[in-house]
From TrEMBL, chain A:
InterPro entries: Emc6 (IPR008504), EMC6-like (IPR029008). Keywords: Endoplasmic reticulum, Membrane, Transmembrane, Transmembrane helix. This is ER membrane protein complex subunit 6. Belongs to the EMC6 family. PANTHER family: ER MEMBRANE PROTEIN COMPLEX SUBUNIT 6 (PTHR20994:SF0). The keyword Ribosomal protein does not apply.
From TrEMBL, chain B:
It is a multi-pass membrane protein. This is ER membrane protein complex subunit 3. The chain crosses the membrane at residues 15-37, 127-148, 179-197. It comes from the Eukaryota. InterPro entries: EMC3, EMC3/TMCO1. Belongs to the EMC3 family. Keywords: Membrane, Transmembrane, Transmembrane helix. Pfam families: EMC3_TMCO1. It comes from Amniculicola lignicola CBS 123094.
Amino acid sequence: MEDERELAIHPVVQTSVQHNTQAVSNIRNLTASLFGVAAGTLGLESYPGFIFYLVGTLIVSLLLFVFRAEGKPSAYFHRPLGDLWGGEVFGGLSGFVLTWTLFYGLVRA
Amino acid sequence: MAQPVVQTIHRDPALFWWILLPITVVMILTGILRHYAMTLLQTTPKKQPLATIRQQRSLVRGITFRQHANVLSPSSFQARKAYFVEAYKEGKFLADPENRGKPRPNPMTDPAAMEGMMGMMKGNMAMMIPQTLIMGWINAFFSGFVIMKLPFPLTPQFKSMLQSGVGTRELDVRWVSSLSWYFLTLFGLQPVYNFILGSNNSASQATQQMAQANPGAGMMGPEQDPDKLFLSEAENLEVMEHRWILDGVEDRLLAQFAF
């Protein structure tokens, strides 16, 4: 009940939420493709490649937290843990695999 | 430690220019083409008679009122609630008041419903036809070439799919033919479309399916009885709890500035 009242006083605007989600997803997609280029050029194979991707997304999350959310993720995200840190982590995976394969094929194999 | 022998294949560098690049370019262009085809195929909504629009809009108005009632003062809330409940129960907004209580006609005979189904069919066709064509094109022109090595290992079950047309049984699964590059681009090009066409594009399947999942959310479906919708909305309004948002705002304001 207290939550509901708090939500009525500070409403969550759906359009802004969508905009923020879109911004995060765009950043994730772009960086995932770039990570794919890096991983392919470095010639990473199987597990190191996926670990590279996870570490990269973690760094991107950190940069989002510091620069885009200015250290206050609760001001921009309804659920900071799910939307900023965990949001869209696997959304960029297909783009990553695509560029990873392409550059691995071009450079190494 | 004895390492297993790594298979290497020397490939013609021209494979990149004549297979990899054409497939990628064709896939990107197909996505763009599909986006514009979908935009052109979208039928403009048919003009509806005034009474029907009034019926839809008044129901939406009631729902909006129920969702945002907290910003109203108690007196204006009561006035609006009384008005809505009475009008809904009497069926004031109904498009054809004589038809109250009669069963609805079969949706298959309703031309509006047919049009909605046609739209969905068109979306599915716009997905299916290019995919079939490109698969056939790749199979006809590029089958039998080993073009690249995947950077991650796969189980041998993928061999028949990813090495279709390659007749060597001992080849590692990581060497794949052109068809698997097609699959990779099929799934991985969504970000590219996002950057070329904007985020609301209809170039890929994922967005396609999401659009189909809720066609016109919040609209009244043609198969539902509007009278029943009005009655249930009146019931919702009657039982709802109203808490004015400005209740105790002085205390909250003071608490904000207190140290």
